[in-house]
Amino acid sequence: MVEQSLRPLAAVLVSAVAIALIVASYRHPNVRDSWSVAAAVAKFGIVASMVPGVLGGESYRAPALAFAPIPGSDVTLTLALEADALGVLFALLASLLWIFTSFYAVGYMRGLDEHAQTRFFASFAASLSAAVGIAFAANLVTIFLFYELLSVATYPLVAHDEDGEARAAGRKYLTYTFFGGGVLVLAGTVLVFVLADTTTFGATAQALGNADPTLAKAAFALLAAGFGVKAGLMPLHSWLPDAMVAPTPVSGLLHAVAVVKSGVFGIARLVLEVYSPAVVADLGVGIYLAAVAAFTLLVSSLIALRQDHLKRRLAYSTVSQLSYIVLGLALLGPTAIKGGLLHIPAHAFMKLTLFFCAGFIHVETHTDYISEMDGIGKRMPLTMAAFAVAAAGMAGIPLVAGFVSKWFLLIGAVEVEQTIFALALLVSGVLNIAYFWPIVYGAFFESPGEADSKPLLEGPIGGRFGAAAAGTSGGPAVATDGVGNGADGSDESASTSDDSGSPSTGTYAVDRNPSDHLSPEEQERRRREAAEAAEAEATAEDESHDDTDHHDVVHDDHGHGGTTGDWEAIGWTGKEGSWLMLGPILAVAAGAVVLGVVPYQAVFLHLIEEIVAGVAF
Amino acid sequence: MLDVVPPAALVLVAALLVAVLPRKVGHGAGALATAGALALSWLVPAGAHLQVTLFGAFDAVLYNVDSFSRLMGLIFSFIGLVAVVYSYASDAERTQTAYALSYVGTSLAAVFAGDWLTLVFFWELMAVTSTLLVWHYGGRAVRAGFRYAVLHGIGGSLVLAALVWHYAEAGTFLFTGEGIAAGVPAVLAAIGIGVNVGFVGLHAWLPDTYPRPHIAASVFLCVYTTKTGVYAMYRAFPDGHMAIAYMGGAMAVFGATMALLQSDMRRLLSYHIQSQVGYMIAGVGLGTKLATAGAFAHVFNHILYKSLLFMTVGVVIYRTGEESLKKVGGLARDMPITAVTFGIAALSIGGFPLFNGFVSKGMVVKAAHKEYVTLLGFDHVYVLWYLLLIGGVGTFLSFIKLGYHAFLHGSYDGKVLDANRGQSVGLVSVAALCVLFGIRPPALYELLPYSDYAIENYHAYTAFHVGEVLVLVAIALVGFAVLKGPLKKVGRVPDIDAIYNPIAFYGTRGLVVGVTELYAAVDRAAVRFVGIVTDVAADPESAVAATPLGDRALNDEYAHPLRAGFGTSILLVTLVATLVLLAVLLG
């Protein structure tokens, strides 16, 4: 049931139209930014209107554009857009998350007073156009075209900062995706066309099944590698961590949702529609793809353990989680494919939350390194709570979306009797705990100067208290009458008293980067007061060696009136920063929880069931 | 009406309220919620009440009441109520009690689950909420909590693996009464659940974590994780398995021995959790009706006296600020309520007649007395029975040690007050129950699964049983008199985590550094390779000049230059392309 409709074309073009409007209103920032939001809402509306039909098994085809590039032969290339369940899945996700990202990006760019905002928002709109084009592409030629357009449209976003590092990252990004990915996809497309006389999705499987196995396998390898560049399969992944120099809304939507998901989407089209799981199983190439995915899963989790820069750690986490999707697709069983496809929205919601939190922290406190984030839960409680929820989901904790997709993947792996991959997934879950949860506990339950060194592996075994025995027999005394916040005994005070964390030297991030909320005069006043207080204390220390002074690196703020090595305590009422950024964070985190509790009712799992029902096993 | 609201829901709502309401009101809400959960567990009729389809694909039962889950619900709610009152009286912050109540709520949801998916769903949430409870205290508790989280993550992963494998064989997650599919799923399930119950080798998180946080937090922690594990072990192995029973016996002995060597009071109690859970696991492993009833009776009683022990020791720590036996002494004079309730709890845990432990321990021991093996040429060696009895001696020994050094012997400098009113309410009410269920066993039998069997067939106060226990007590008293001196000199005894913690840490560090350095080296090599290629392509003459014969090749007037004109280059490219095309078409 194919319905002729302009809606797929409209969905692609609505943000292309928005580009012109955004550029035209460059002098009026509020108007310009509202074009972004309007385009996002319109795009989401158009895609959402196609959902009921798609769930009923229909698909929507837009008028195609055919041309014959070689005069005198009957080879025609068709550029066609068709919205089926798989395409709607990706487009729905990208357009929904773009709405939240538009608000977030406005808050972020204004919070940092960034340059070239018009170019930024225009390129963003162009990227989303290309992403929806990839989603609705009806054949390999179209998907290749939009794939390349996506790389072009995202380049200005990656190289936004225009400094040396950004340009180098942009060059690397283009080299990998444009030349590496694009050329491989083109080569694969040509080979498929030669073997099957068409590149339309769903029409090539039989021909490929009957073709020469070597050529069919070669085509599969070329396409998988080409899409795999964007999907972050090792060893083609290294553009991803370097692309983190981009502003966080870019890292978030594009590199956690749209660009990388277009890579795994391409692999989904490859496995499910160009070849079909039955043909892939016959050719025997699925196991190689699964092995590469499992390798990527584990190795990038290990690399993530060593990263101190928060966004780089998130980038390696993205590489790892994308391979969950590829693994699910490569296992070829229905439940595994369901798990892999479900991980597309699940990971998108969770990872976007994490990136949004990282960006918000950067805007409000200019802190980028995990080792400087101890105690930041006091300053940004709602943000870190959302971070904790998303991090729990990454590890596969129930109530968050990551549990459901991981559950399906595990069952899928056992179903096709390849349990080793289930084992890889479980090990990865434990590694996720190891590299995400220290951030959470450091933020809420530790303070600067009274924290384990991060990343944990760089420090001593057992952390801050590691040198002393792990058992508490004969350990430090606990404060009487119950209440204690881990008050250290006097043997710990000896080490903290010579800590160079005095306020004026600014060892702690909180001192180097006071909040943007404070005006420069206010910051200067606080710094002066803190310096004076530190001097006074230094002279006092020489005179009296009183035990009680040494415990508290965290002094009572009121006495000194300046930053004294600990974060300012904001309550849970949302005063930690702009609601333009906090709102999207909480909304996307809530989305991750909704997807974790009722994924079927939240449409995505229903779409996936529809997709899997139409696949030939 | 009663069957639509699961007890867990009440407690979870209260957890949210405690976090935001003022301290007194919030704790009151917590107490009300746990009392409500207790009432619900008592009154709700048996049967499966909330059947749903989870994630669009799996049949699940969110709320299922049978004699096993009812018993767990009753004791979990009751002790939650006592612990909330104790928390309030011990100056616990409301955030801490909120985390504690979320832990209680998820535990209740896990034991009232009617299928494996729901159970494992809440099992993972229990691990998270208990981790938060430990972390809240700060300081040393934070890193210990992280180790706890990683270890429970591994245990949870094993349980997940067991369940998906079981699903592949059984086709459903619902409880069928046959447990986990035999073979690999059963082994994985046993080990995964074994992490939670403290199998020997998988237990080191117990003494590492439980002594760290606030005294009231320890009271919550000592109850829920391990006993939900026992319940899950029963669901996985309803007919038992002798390997599990022998592991239970080993746990009983190992835990009691390690406890004896501790001077930190809460660490001693934590090892005892392992020891006592060993009795429960032995009962589950034996699988007979008496053994199962005994195991669950022991769950019930143990929760009562173990939380009482943590509460009394908690009062000692609260009043003196000391965690170690070496720093306290002679407190019975100043703290009579605490000392007496401690005494009751110690007699209960040992299994002295007239106290509740005697009844439940007796059931498990009697069931164990039917299992024998042939060992070293001897027929009828009751290995499991001996292990459980030795565990009993060890239990008495360590509690004589704890009671003697804390309350009887020595003196404490400074004035101490006894337990305050709220704490005393908790202590006395639980102690009373310990005595009640000891002197009137049928009151306990009625709550148990297989209650009719127990009521008709088991007689707790037989001469043999009483005599058995009195012999153990005598051995323990003599043993203490002998070992008292040497035990005082024992320092810190390392446990198995002294081996696996460094291996895990340094091993992971080595692996991570290895991988990242390798990746960096490959990256450098690739970049250098690309650099060389581009250099050669840009300036081939210098490249050739750099080779050994290069100079000669370039300077020789008959040598061919490495540069060609525009036209020549196109000709060359066309020739090569034609040749390749011919090869492909004709090949």
Question: In summary, what is this structure?
Answer:
The complex is a heterodimer of chains A (617) and B (587). By secondary structure, chain A is an all-alpha fold.
Give the SSE layout.
The complex is a heterodimer of chains A (617) and B (587).
Chain A: E1 2-4, H1 7-24, H2 29-55, E2 59-61, E3 65-67, E4 77-79, E5 82-83, H3 85-111, H4 117-136, H5 140-158, H6 164-196, H7 205-210, H8 213-230, H9 239-242, H10 248-283, H11 286-304, H12 310-331, H13 334-365, H14 376-379, H15 381-394, H16 401-415, H17 419-445, H18 490-497, H19 509-512, H20 520-543, H21 547-551, H22 557-560, H23 579-597, H24 604-613
Parallel strand pairs in A: 1-2
Antiparallel strand pairs in A: 2-5, 3-4
Helix pairs in contact in A: 1-2, 1-4, 2-3, 2-4, 3-4, 3-10, 3-13, 3-23, 3-24, 4-5, 4-10, 5-6, 5-10, 6-8, 8-10, 10-12, 10-13, 11-12, 11-17, 12-13, 12-16, 12-17, 13-15, 13-16, 13-23, 13-24, 15-17, 15-23, 16-17, 16-23
Chain B: H1 7-20, H2 23-43, E1 47-48, E2 51-54, E3 58-61, E4 64-65, H3 67-89, H4 94-111, H5 116-135, H6 140-170, H7 184-197, H8 205-209, H9 215-236, H10 242-260, H11 265-286, H12 289-320, H13 336-350, H14 356-368, E5 373-375, E6 378-381, H15 383-408, H16 421-439, H17 441-445, H18 451-457, H19 463-489, H20 497-538, H21 540-546, H22 550-555, H23 566-586
Antiparallel strand pairs in B: 1-4, 2-3, 5-6
Helix pairs in contact in B: 1-2, 1-4, 2-3, 3-4, 3-9, 3-12, 3-16, 4-5, 4-9, 5-6, 5-9, 6-7, 7-9, 9-11, 9-12, 10-11, 10-15, 11-12, 11-14, 11-15, 12-13, 12-14, 12-16, 13-15, 13-16, 14-16, 15-19, 20-21
Defining key terms:
heterodimer; A: about 625 residues; mainly alpha; 3-stranded mixed sheet; two-stranded antiparallel ribbon; 24 helices; B: about 575 residues; two-stranded antiparallel sheet; 23 helices; about 75% helix
